[in-house]
Structures are given as C-alpha cells and as structure tokens.
Amino acid sequence: MDTEPTNSRPTSLLSDSENVRVTVAPIDPELVYGCDEVGFMPSRGSKRRVIGARNRSIQHQQGDGGRENTTVIVTICADGTATKPTVIFKGSAFNLNWNQENPAQASFAHSEKGWTDGEIGVAWIQDFHEQTKSKAQERTRLLLVDGHNSHYTRGFLRFAREHRIHVLCYPAHGTHVYQGRVVIFAPLKQYWTQEKDAYYRRTRKRITKSNFLLIYGTAHKQALTVENIKAAFRKTGVVPYNPEIVSDKLAPSKETSNQGELPAAQPTPV
C-alpha cells in the first residue's frame, strides 16, 4: 500500500512483518508550532512597597492587586514567527469596553474563571487554522501542546484531524524540559511589568479589562522577537532536532553518597 506524501522530501519506510510501504515526509520547520497559556493579574493597586536589604543595589518592588486572572494563549512557530494571541477575560458575558486599542491584534474570549476550557479550545484551533492555512498550503502542520484537557476534546481533535494538524502532547510533568515557554514568557512578563508600571505613572489609572489589550499588546510585540522564538525551539531540541538536549536534562541522578545515618546527627547546641 502506497500513500501520498504529506509534505516535500518524502522518505520511504518498509515494514517486513506486514510488507507495507509507507511514504513519510518530514514536517518543515515553518509548520512546527507550539502553544501555551500564561496568566496575568491586570489589577494594579495604588500601594507600592520596595523590599530589600539595606545598602543593597537590588531591591524588590511589590504592590497590592486583585486576584482576577486573565489568560493569554501564545502560539509560536519554529521559523521565528508567531500567530496573533488569544486573550481570555474573566466574565459571564462579553463587554463592549473590552474592544479597545489592540497593538497585538489579539482575539479575545471570556469564561467564568478567566481560564481556557473545551469550548474556547475548539474556537482557538479554528482561529489557529485560519491564521496558518495560507502558509501551510494544504501541508501537514505540527502543533505542540501541554496536557490541558482543552487540547483533547472531541471537537478539538476532530477539527485537527480534518485539517491535517498533528497534535503532539508533552509528557506529563515534563513541560519544564520540553517546552520553550521560559525563553518566551520570562521576557514577556518582564516587559508586561515595565509597560504596566509606565502606564500607571503616565495616567494614574489601574490596569483593567478595558485597557489590558493595550498594555499587553505592547509587551507582546517586544518579547516575541524572531531571536527569542527560535531560541525557544532550539533550547528544547525541537528545531533543529537535537535529542541530546532532552536526554541530558532527564538523566538519572548521580550517586553522591553511599553512607547515611538515621536519625541524622544534630549539632550541639541545637
């Protein structure tokens, strides 16, 4: 049985047991995507404190704020590009005040807790398809996701299958190794804090749903550079493919001691 290649550069594989030849094609880096959610607490209170040891150059700023969470779904591609983000506000209904200046051209949704769910997941992958189908030109796309249940609903997987989107899940408890989120989210959080503080100093207004897209969008455009995005895939060994990066991080612990005491000896005086 021969199957048509999905992408360019096909490779033939032969199974001796079944005598079946299958033509397999690698997925181009420009069609390898990764997505993840990041949470923000937009509320910015009026009380600010600076905490740190006396005569130290590094101080820590802390401020009060609310507990309301706003989730942003960020999707990056191995070629250094990114799709438009999706912002999920906490709320039971859409509010016209959310339609504001939007530098990142983000789409937005709402849920009771401000988190993604199965319904939003289906709407998100439909939006992902619309943003990436012209680049794909009917070739197969690879989408790397974590184990959140919104990525595995019947509607999500059915849509992915119908539109040639391969969904690959990171192993449980392994996203800190496989996922390049730190490379992206660390500068994103940093720019978010800078933009939030600058906005407050300039306007003396709190960060709410009515101005969140403006503040976040500015930080998003600064953090998601071509260099940062490519570094996220490179440092996790996805593109270029480098399994040694992962194997080193998941290597078993080295034996550092072969002697122990129970109970442990206590210092004197305790």
UniProtKB/TrEMBL annotation:
Q: Where is this region: Disordered?
A: 249-270
- Name this polypeptide is given: DDE-domain-containing protein
Known InterPro entries for this protein? DDE_SF_endonuclease_dom
Q: What's a Gene Ontology MF term here?
A: nucleic acid binding
Q: Which residues form the DDE-1 domain?
A: 70-233
Instruction: State the superkingdom.
Output: Eukaryota
